[in-house]
Specification:
The complex is a heterotrimer.
Chain A lengths: L7 E10 L2 E11 L4 E5 L6 H8 L3 H5 L4 E6 L2 E3 L4 H6 L2 E4 L11 H5 L6 E2 L2 H6 L5 E2 L1 H15 L14 H13 L6 E5 L7 H16 L3 E5 L3 H7 L2 E6 L2 E7 L5 H9 L17 E10 L6 E9 L3 E5 L6 H8 L5 E7 L2 E2 L5 H5 L3 E4 L3 H5 L6 H13 L3 E4 L4 E4 L1 H14 L16 H13 L5 E5 L7 H18 L2 E5 L3 H7 L2 E6 L2 E6 L5 H8 L12
Chain B lengths: L2 H25 L1 E7 L9 E5 L5 E3 L4 E7 L3 E8 L2 E9 L6 E5 L11 E3 L2 H5 L1
Parallel strand pairs in B: 1-7
Antiparallel strand pairs in B: 1-4, 2-3, 2-5, 5-6, 7-8
Chain C lengths: L1 H13 L1 H17 L3 H20 L2 H5 L8 H17 L4 H29 L4 H23 L22 E3 L12 E4 L2 E4 H19 L1 H11 L1 H6 L4 H27 L1 E3 L3 H15 L9 H26 L2 H39 L1 H10 L1
Helix pairs in contact in C: 2-13, 3-8, 3-11, 3-12, 3-13, 5-6, 5-7, 5-11, 5-12, 6-7, 6-11, 9-11, 12-13, 12-14, 13-14
The chains are: A alpha/beta, B alpha+beta, C mainly alpha.
């Protein structure tokens, strides 16, 4: 067994995007019929690693990678995903790549249909062949059988439960004649508990038929259940490569989140006892960040953190409450109901938000800093406007705007040539500060900040966080901070809620064990501590 | 491209051209001027060629009728108080218009068709 | 009970265009005071005339490109073929074959050009196709009024403009009139059935049914639903879209020739445009949407639209003492239907998004309902 060449081996894979290192010397291998569980937080490098494996053009376009990928002991370099498919590597994506109006059979055999040639082919080429539906159905049935599940080959995908869609995707990959290795990216993310069980069982079935599998999931108990070996990626490095036997979910969670140090908790302001914001059964239809059913309460003067993996719905919460995406549920601020789906009304309720989409939603890139900072206050509250001709027109009060901008430039240490500079010309960190200033200019009592430190340098990060802290301490501003960076949340928040699959998985104190956060992010029911909230 | 598909495509192209030639040669229209100047006949006649809608030709006048192709054509001449005359004629080759004098027609005799210039005859 | 009402409501909202049209027709028929025999025999004639044209729209809808307003380009090609057939004095069915043989390569070329442009205007195919039609009008007028008679001499007097510059505005098609319809005309009572034309239409139906079963047809259905997925499965999306447009343009060329041989005259510079509007209205009235069209939709649409066309002018005369009002009404309804169908398309998309959203509420909606009690 040890002498056998592994099916796939990755050796010393490194990759940087213009100096920004995303993978560093990653080495592991996958044996025949073996299931390798690949885990890691967002940004740990899983996606980039898979892109390298599949020869995605984006890798070559950004300068290629270092290291070797070998299949069956021979080094390979795929130029496109189609080469990888030809070599017998199949990919099952997180989002379904199925044609909704096609049947199971049609999807499984998509673009590899069994065909019968006819005279028209001689004239116009092979695409005039007629599909041999009987043979296609047979092939589909064989693939479904190999999976060991029950699927109706004639059912339309649009009418299927999600679990069946996932199986259809996998069946499509194993319908390829020479499939040796399957990569499954979060295949259970959309499945119910019982559907996931069936999927794991069929993965084992496939492995026993000699197909190797790389299983990417953030549901750690699934990894432990199904994988033979576990590879943990953290910050671009393969920090662990261990056999599953003897490994617990708790261990993996710790390795994954890493940095086994206590968060540097600075002194927090004392918040009042009364509930300031209460959210009940909130749902938000934000594409890619769907919120399904979220309820939580925030006390006055609290900094409340919301974390979780990307795509689980944490960003949807702020956007939904601010009325930027359609949603429903009940939101109360300071005892008053907040109308949903009404961005203007929300701004009148002493609330402000800093969007995660700084350049898109957050800023008027072509306008001056003065404009940017005063804009929302002007639009929402009619401030910085002077009535002319008895209120017939309103003119901008340029002087007041300039004064306001100067105040924030000083306070937030915004590096700029002057308040007349255009927002586009500033660095990411300074743009973020402008966004904050814009929100502060509304004098909100409740502030939502989404990903305030995304894409800005360390120094700017510290200033942004310190600013939030200052406003919280000195003005008693209640802040809901949404961030993918757990460390950041732990350093500033009173309490941290972790969102998983559109729901609050649990609420923890910042001092809680790092593994507990990891478990909540992985959607694990926390069996030891019971209800952490 | 396989040899077979090359042959099939070639055949298709040949068929395309052949159909074109057939359509042109058999579908080309020619004008036949029917003169009604028979001294033996007093009155209008009605003429139908190749089963088309009959056309009336007054005494001493003529009318132009389009016929399809240069092959043989059937002509039917009707007049009141006399049996219908049915005969065949061939359009003179290499001309676009011709005149047919009803005066020369007698049962059993050949129908004489003489080429004419359509432009001068039209006006 | 409510389930039944729900079903009826869904049926109505899914077929609203057809239902409105049917209602209009049923109202117009008694007012027109036309006999059933007259209406029916007219319908048979018009059915033979225009169904082929409407079929040209099916494939692009299948390929997710919406209504191919650029089918006008194909109709133009057919008219160019006919101009040459008339000018060369080719008569009868041979004239139509000759026109088709000339028109087909032109339409394939135009279709390929159009497909290229539509690929660059992804997601806005319909409006782009519409404008392309206008653009083609200009090119065609240049050809008809300038190139013809100058580069290509016009041989026959009845084709040329009176003053000699280019092709006439109205071209008589007597020499090919009924070239297809009258090959075999079966008379049953008061009705005349143009058997050969019907056979050609039947053949086209068979072709469409067969085509849907081919690999290319399957690929078109796939890209019509999910371009991204199809692309990642290795289907050449761009090429497939171009082929859909090429075939559509080709069918429009043949359809226009069949249409004009039945009409017997041609408004050289506007007939192609009428063909486009008519076909779009007909397929929509038949219950097709911008994303789904079947052979059934074509037949229902052609019958309904023509029923209204036949009865409306007379109903207008009867009601308002002016046949013109009826004529205006027909035009108004024609464009109204196209607009309505497009608005409905947008509305349906939103409704479906709402329905999908309702699914998201999951526990929240239930909990809220439970919490009230």
């Amino acid at each position: 067994m040890p002498n056998e060449t592994p099916l796939l081996s990755l050796e010393g894979i490194s990759k940087d995007f213009y100096g920004n290192v995303v993978l560093e010397d990653v080495t592991f291998s996958v044996g025949r019929g073996q299931i390798v569980g690949l885990v890691g937080e967002n940004g740990a490098g899983k996606t980039t690693l898979m892109r390298i494996l599949f020869g995605m053009p984006v890798i070559a376009e950004t300068g290629g990678f270092k290291g070797t990928v070998s299949l069956d002991g021979k080094p390979v370099a795929f130029k496109s995903p189609f080469d990888a498919l030809d070599a017998g590597i199949g990919m099952v994506h997180q989002e379904f790549s199925l044609i909704p109006g096609f049947t199971t059979t049609e999807n499984i055999t998509l673009n590899r249909e069994t065909m019968k040639s006819n005279l028209a082919c001689d004239i116009f080429g092979s695409r005039m062949s007629v599909l041999d539906r009987a043979a296609m159905r047979k092939r589909a049935s064989v693939a479904i059988e190999r999976l060991g599940v029950k699927l109706d080959p004639d059912m339309l995908v649009s009418e299927m439960p999600v679990g069946h869609k996932q199986f259809t995707e996998i069946a499509r990959e194993i319908d390829r004649a020479n499939v040796k290795l399957l990569v499954l990216d979060e295949p259970t993310a959309v499945l119910t508990e019982s559907e996931a069980e069936v999927l794991l069982a069929s993965l084992r079935t496939l492995a026993s038929q000699g197909i190797s599998i790389i299983f990417i999931s953030h549901r750690l108990h699934e990894i432990v259940k199904v994988a033979d070996r576990i590879v943990v990626l953290r910050d671009g490095k393969a920090v662990k490569d261990v056999p599953t036997a003897g490994t617990t979910v708790h261990d993996i969670a710790k390795w994954m989140v890493g940095r086994d140090v206590q968060a540097s908790v600075t002194e927090l302001s004392t918040c009042k006892e009364n509930t300031f914001l209460s959210v009940e059964h909130l749902w938000v239809d934000m594409p890619g960040e769907t919120v399904r059913d979220v309820s939580f309460e925030v006390r006055e003067g609290e900094i409340f953190g919301i974390g979780g993996l990307a795509g689980q719905g944490k960003l949807g919460i702020a956007n939904g409450i601010m009325g930027l995406f359609p949603g429903g549920g009940k939101v109360t601020v300071d005892g008053k109901d907040i109308p949903l789906n009404d961005p203007h009304g929300v701004l009148n309720s002493h609330m402000a938000s800093v969007s995660e989409d700084r350049r898109g939603v957050g800023l008027l890139l072509d306008e001056t800093l003065e404009w940017n900072i005063a804009f929302t206050a002007m639009q929402a509250k009619g401030e910085y406007l002077t009535p002319v001709l008895g209120g017939l027109f309103k003119l901008r009060d340029e002087k007041a705007m300039k004064k306001l901008a100067e105040q924030y430039v000083k306070q937030l240490e915004i590096k700029c040539t002057g308040t007349k500079q255009r927002a586009m010309e500033l660095s990411g960190g300074n743009q973020q500060k402008i966004c904050l200033a814009k929100a502060f200019a509304l004098n909100p009592r409740l502030l939502f900040v989404s990903e305030p430190t995304r894409g800005i340098d360390v120094g700017a990060k510290a200033i942004v966080l310190e600013t939030l802290r200052t406003y919280n301490r000195e003005f008693g501003m209640t802040i809901v901070m949404i961030s993918s960076e757990l460390e950041e949340l732990r350093s500033i928040c009173h309490r941290i809620a972790i969102v998983d699959e559109g729901k609050i998985a649990g609420i923890l104190a910042p001092t809680a064990d790092i593994a507990e956060f990891g478990l909540l992010m992985s959607g694990e029911p926390d069996d030891k501590n019971g209800d952490a909230a | 491209m396989t040899k077979r598909s090359m042959i099939v495509r070639g055949a298709l192209l040949a068929l395309y051209i052949a159909v074109g030639i057939w359509a042109y040669s058999t579908g080309k229209g020619y004008k036949i001027f029917v003169d009604n100047t028979d001294p033996a006949v007093a009155g209008a006649i009605t003429v139908a060629i190749d089963g088309a809608t009959p056309v009336k030709v007054r005494l001493g006048g003529y009318t132009g009728i389009m016929v399809k192709g240069t092959g043989s054509h059937r002509i039917k001449i009707m007049r009141e108080g006399a049996p219908d005359f049915i005969g065949e004629f061939r359009f003179p080759p290499e001309s676009t218009a011709a005149a047919l004098a009803v005066s020369g027609i007698r049962p059993g005799s050949e129908i004489v068709v003489t080429p004419v210039d359509p432009e001068t005859r039209d006006r | 009970m409510t389930l039944k009402a729900d079903k009826l409501g869904k049926f109505l909202s899914d077929n609203i265009v057809t239902v409105i049209f049917l209602a209009l027709t049923l109202v117009a028929i008694p007012f027109s005071r036309l006999s059933g025999t007259y209406i029916l025999s007219n319908l048979i004639d018009r059915f033979a005339r225009s169904s082929f044209l409407v079929f040209a729209l099916i494939l692009p809808i299948m390929a997710g490109m919406g209504i191919n307003f650029a089918m006008v380009l194909g109709a133009t090609a057919g008219q160019i073929g006919l101009i040459f057939a008339i000018d060369n004095n080719i008569m009868g069915v041979q004239g139509l074959v000759y026109a088709s043989l000339l028109g087909m390569p032109i339409s394939i070329l135009l279709g390929w050009f159009c497909g290229q442009i539509l690929n660059r205007a992804r997601g806005r195919e319909m409006v782009t196709g519409f404008i392309l039609g206008f653009f083609m009008d200009g090119v065609y007028q240049f050809f008809g009024l300038y190139v013809m008679g100058w580069l290509i001499p016009i041989k026959t007097g009845q084709v040329a403009q009176i003053d000699g510059g280019g092709v006439r505005n109205t071209l008589g098609l007597e020499s090919v009139r009924g070239g297809l319809d009258k090959i075999i005309s079966l008379k049953i009572g008061p009705f005349a059935f143009p058997i050969v034309t019907f056979a050609v239409i039947a053949l086209l139906c068979v072709f469409i049914i067969w085509f849907r079963k081919t690999k290319l047809g399957q690929d078109m259905r796939a890209i019509g639903q999910e371009q991204g997925v199809s692309h990642s499965a290795g289907i050449n999306v761009d090429r497939t879209r171009i082929l859909a447009i090429v075939i559509s343009t080709l069918l429009a060329c043949l359809g226009q020739i069949i249409y004009l041989q039945n009409m017997g005259n041609m408004f050289t510079y506007t007939s192609q445009r009428q063909a486009g509007y008519f076909a779009a209205a007909a397929i929509l009235v038949g219950g097709a949407t911008v994303t789904r069209a079947t052979i059934k939709n074509v037949f229902i649409g052609v019958f309904l639209v023509h029923s209204l066309y036949i009865t409306m002018p007379l109903a207008g005369k009867e009601l308002f003492d002016s046949a013109m009002i009826g004529q205006y009404m027909s035009d108004f309804i024609n464009f109204g239907i196209i607009s309505l169908a497009l608005v409905l398309h947008a509305w349906r998309n939103r409704r479906n998004a709402d329905l999908a959203r309702a699914g998201l509420r999951g526990g929240a909606a239930l909990a809220a309902a439970g919490g009230d009690k």
